[in-house]
């Protein structure tokens, strides 16, 4: 079950990345938009969970989420096209939640709260952020 959820999280992240784009351009034409990324997951979910995110080089990484809150901060490299965050878990209690937040340059770009279903399974997948070209 755990490997299925991890695979699902990775596939969803890559699928959303392939079809999304950002029309927001906060650099005002200067070409120097921030690449400072912060991921944050909070909530009361008590099951076994893992998180998938794009790291500074643009590669997708998956790691176990051993405690909440979970955070990761870095400056994305020039070759990285964007930032994405998803999490999934099993073994929780129906109604428990996870809230994911994605910050770029200190500005909240995306936030989503997911709720565990009657089987205690939870899936959280934020819309990816694409860095301006």
Query: Into which percent range does the helicity of residues fall?
Result: 10-25%
Contiguous low-pLDDT stretches (5 residues minimum) are: 14-32
H/I helix tally: 1
Mean of residue pLDDT values: 85
- How do the SSEs run, as a string of H and E? HEEEEEEEEEE
Give a count of the beta strands, DSSP E runs of length 2 or more. Answer: 10
Q: Strand order, main sheet: write it out.
A: 4-1-7-8
The main β sheet shows up as: 4 strands, antiparallel
**What global shape is seen?**
elongated
The secondary-structure class comes to mainly beta
Tell me the strand percentage band: 35-45%
Assembly level? single chain
The gyration radius over C-alpha positions equals 15 Å
Signal peptide: 1-17
InterPro entries: MmpS (IPR008693), MmpS_C (IPR038468)
Organism: Flavobacterium chungangensis
Keywords: Cell membrane, Membrane, Signal, Transmembrane, Transmembrane helix
């Amino acid at each position: 079950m755990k490997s299925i959820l991890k695979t699902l999280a990775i596939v969803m992240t890559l699928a959303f990345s392939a079809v999304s784009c950002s029309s927001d351009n906060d650099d005002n034409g200067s070409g120097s938009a921030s690449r400072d990324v912060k991921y944050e997951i909070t909530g009361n979910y008590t099951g076994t969970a893992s998180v998938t995110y794009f790291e500074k080089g643009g590669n997708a990484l998956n790691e176990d989420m051993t405690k909440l809150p979970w955070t990761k901060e870095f400056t994305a490299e020039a070759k990285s096209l964007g930032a994405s965050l998803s999490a999934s878990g099993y073994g929780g209690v129906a109604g428990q939640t996870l809230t994911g937040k994605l910050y770029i340059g200190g500005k909240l770009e995306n936030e989503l709260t997911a709720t565990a279903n009657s089987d205690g399974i939870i899936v959280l997948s934020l819309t990816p952020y694409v860095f301006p070209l």
